[in-house]
# Entry
Amino acid sequence: MFDAKKTADEIITFIKKYYKENNMKGAVVGISGGKDSAVVAGLFTKALGKENVVGIWMPCHSKEEDKNNAIELANHFGFELKEFDLTNLYDNYVNQIIALNNPNMDDLVDSNINIKPRLRTATLYYHAAYLSKKNKGLYLVAGTSNKCEIYVGYFTKGGDNVADIQVLADLTVDEVIQVGEAIKVPYHIVHKAPDDGLSGLTDEDKLGVKYSEIADVLENNGNNTDEVVKQRIYVLHEKSAHKFTTPTFRKNL
# Structure
């Protein structure tokens, strides 16, 4: 039986221990308005103190609801929230690509989706470097990916998979929700259906499988999941293999 309170306490201890052993100061968290970043921000605030956590809300043609949830979360836990609007940067980026290539716009769909998390990751690291210098202590970028997302490769390579410390990567979506409840993340945020804020579809709609089914495959070999769905999850995992390893030539000595 998963003990959410015990797990939350263990994560907080893990953060404190790592920071103390490595003489580090603070954390930068990308705040999306969803549950994963909310739980991460809450855990780091409890581990390091609200004065050592900075949340960055990075709208890019984003929904007002997500902004409101980000502000509510920051007020709830007391950490500083900065808004860094990427909309114009993104638009200029895409416009230059169009000018250079004169592409069929359908061919840019995946590129446009993936450039946003890459721009956000660059923004988080920029702030982390700035805050480290300003406050005379190392700030890390905290990752927000959970175990289910990682398994099926639902992340952008060179984007939201890049972080200095991960605290949800061994937790399924349901476990993240339970930990969020244990540390008192606002209910409607921790139970918010995850989506990309772009397509009008939830993450589960886009994946074609439920996170509970991915968790069943990870934890029970898919014993409670339909065989067709189980095979789709395996295919998603296999198709994402390139995201986990980098082919590297080695010299024969």
DSSP finds eleven helices and five strands in the chain. Residues 4-195 form a domain with the Rossmann fold fold (CATH 3.40.50.620).
